[in-house]
Design a protein that fits this description.
Number of domains: 2
CATH architecture of the largest domain: 3-Layer(aba) Sandwich
Number of helices: 12
Structural class: alpha/beta
CATH topology of the largest domain: Rossmann fold
CATH superfamily of the largest domain: Aspartate/ornithine carbamoyltransferase
Shape: globular
Helix content: 25-40%
Number of strands: 12
CATH class of the largest domain: Alpha Beta
Length: 335
């Protein structure tokens, strides 16, 4: 494996192999398998779980990792092209990225969505431009369009919880957040769940519809796997019989790149906070998933987060086990 960019672009058999490997590494540790290997990471947005889970993954397998972000650079780092660098920043991404890559045997990159032009973000232009500067195996630690590491960990979580593939009902619900957040998380969750063969519903208020191209790809993936994909603003109908309620926040696609119009629409939707009544018509064993960070009493109520329904801590732990498999395959390809 030379790169890990978009989970839904892999064959299902390849995903299964990574999941099998992650379970093996979880139960049969290999503490020296990556001894002497270095994983370099560049974060252009802040992180808790992605950063720490990759560091822990490398340590558990005997390797090492280091992280660089613009905030850490003593010189300041310029990330835009075509600028005259007569300000504070003395370092440019075009020189920094090859240097960072040269210090490791593989590299992880987390790029940010500009959230100005949706077509550019969906095309992942920022991430792919930076990726051209890297001559080592590369992991997408989240881009404007995809979050494959989160999705692989989520797939493992669904397996751990015993959620069926064919016939399993997963609802991805938009929830309120005071800020406009990227589309990468919900896109990857939708498409990987469709690839898994589940019956997937996107629940969202008007103005937060998934882009048509995203839904079309999800439907294609579902058709191959025996699943289904739909979208609605009807909360009661969407949650009927659901096995998983996956809460997530994302930007308005109607007002993408228009923060004033988006804020006005968003502020009318504070009731989109997941609380116990949301589970009235779900399967009795319905579980909550959320990629975190999660805003308590804003996106999800305390009573739900602190209940037995919540699987979010297991989700976070599974990021590490899943990423261990990815790193293992990057450094030690299958014969």
């Amino acid at each position: 494996m030379k790169s890990f960019y978009d989970l839904a672009a892999l064959e299902t058999e390849h995903v299964e192999e990574l999941l099998t490997l992650s379970r093996h590494l979880q139960t049969h540790p290999e503490p020296r398998v990556l001894q002497g290997k270095v994983f370099s990471m560049l974060f252009l947005s802040r992180s808790l779980r992605t950063l720490s889970s990759f560091q822990a993954a490398m340590i558990r397998m005997g390797g090492g990792a280091f992280v660089i972000s613009p905030d850490m650079s003593i010189h300041g780092m310029e990330v835009h092209s075509g600028v005259v660098m007569d300000g504070v920043a003395a370092e440019h991404l075009r020189e920094a990225v090859p240097v960072i890559a040269s210090y490791g045997d593989a590299m992880g990159l987390r790029a940010v969505a500009e959230r100005r032009h949706m077509h550019r973000d969906l095309a992942d232009e920022a991430y792919l431009d930076i990726a051209k500067l890297v001559d080592k195996p590369l992991v997408n630690m989240e881009s404007a369009a995809y979050h494959p590491c989160q999705s692989l960990g989520d797939w493992k979580t669904l397996d751990d919880l015993g959620v069926a593939r064919q016939g399993g009902r997963l609802v991805i619900s938009w929830t309120f957040h005071p800020q406009a957040l990227p589309l990468s998380g919900p896109i990857s969750t939708l498409q990987s769940a469709a690839m898994r063969g589940m019956d997937v519903t996107v629940l969202r208020p008007d103005g937060f519809e998934m882009p048509a191209s995203v839904m079309q790809r999800a439907r294609t993936l579902a058709a191959r796997s025996g699943g289904s994909v739909r979208e609605t603003n009807d909360r009661r109908e969407a949650l009927q019989g659901a096995h998983i309620l996956y809460a997530k926040e994302w930007s308005s696609t109607r007002h993408y790149g228009d923060p004033i119009a988006e804020t006005k629409l968003r502020n009318e939707l504070t009731d989109w906070c997941v609380s116990e009544p949301w589970f009235k018509n779900t399967d009795p064993q319905c579980r909550l998933m959320h990629a975190m960070p999660v805003r308590r009493e804003v996106s999800v109520a305390d009573a739900v987060l602190d209940s037995a329904r919540s699987a979010i801590i297991r989700q976070a732990e599974n990021r590490m086990w899943a990423q261990m498999a990815v790193l293992y395959r990057l450094f030690k390809p299958a014969v």
